[in-house]
Amino acid sequence: MTKDIHASNEASGEMTDSDRLSGLLRMLDQRHHGNDISIDDILKTFASRGFGPMLVVPALLALICPIPGIPTACGLFMALVAIQQLFGRDYPWLPRRLRRVSIGEQRFHNAVERIAPRTDSVERLLKPRLTFVDSGLARRVIALLVVLLSLSMAPLELLPFAAALPAGMLLLIALGMIARDGLVILIGVVVATMGVGWLLTMLL
Question: Best-predicted range by mean pLDDT among 16-20, 38-42, 101-105, 165-169?
C-alpha cells in the first residue's frame, strides 16, 4: 500500500513527506531523541531511500556544524557513498570507525528546528523533471563530481568556514537527487564548476 502511494505521488510529480529534506530531518530527530546522532544512524535510517538522502544529511551537517573534524568526516562519508554510486552499487558500505562519528542530539535538534521550516518552502519548488540527468552516464558523471567536491572539504577545513562552499553545492545536488529534479541537479553542477574554478584561481 505504501509503495502504491509513493508510486502515485511520483507519477503525479509530488514528493512524499519521507522524500522531503524536512521530513527526513524530523524523522531522524524524533527517532533518536535524547541520543547523539551518528553517521551510522543516518545510514540505517535513509539507506533504503537511495543515495540522495545519504548525501543531503551529511552535507547539511557540514554546513551547520563547522566543528573541527565534522566537515572532514562528512566529506569522507559522501565521497565513499558517491564512489559506490559511481560503480553502480545499490547499498552504501562504510567502515565502522566512520559510522561512529556523531553530533550532539541537542545541537542537531536545534538545527532541525531552525532549518526544517525553511526547507518546506524550498521543497515546493522541487519536482521530477529532466530525469535523464539522474540516470545512466549522467548519474555517474555527477557521482564523480560529488566525489571531488567531498574530498575537497578536508583541506578546505584548514580555512575558517571554507568547507561550507562545497557542502552547499553538494546539498543542492543532493536535493535534486531526492526529488529527481534534473534542473536543480544541473544548477548545482554549474555552481560547483564555477566554485571549483574560483578556488583554483585563488590557489594558483
Answer: 165-169
Poorest-confidence range of 15-24, 27-36, 140-149? 15-24
- Please tell me the total number of residues recorded for the chain in this structure: 204
State how far the Cα of 83 lies from the Cα of 7, in Å rounded to an integer: 28
> What is the pTM for the complete model shown?
0.72
Q: Please state the three-class secondary structure of 50-110 as a single string.
A: CHHHHHHHHHHHHHHCCCCCHHHHHHHHHHHHHHHHHCCCCCCCCCHHHHCCEECHHHHHH
Cβ neighbours of residue 167 closer than 8 Å, sequence gap 6 or more = 59, 60, 62, 63, 71, 74, 153
Distance CA 6, CA 14 (A): 9
Whether residue 10 is predicted with pLDDT greater than 50 in this model: the reply is: no
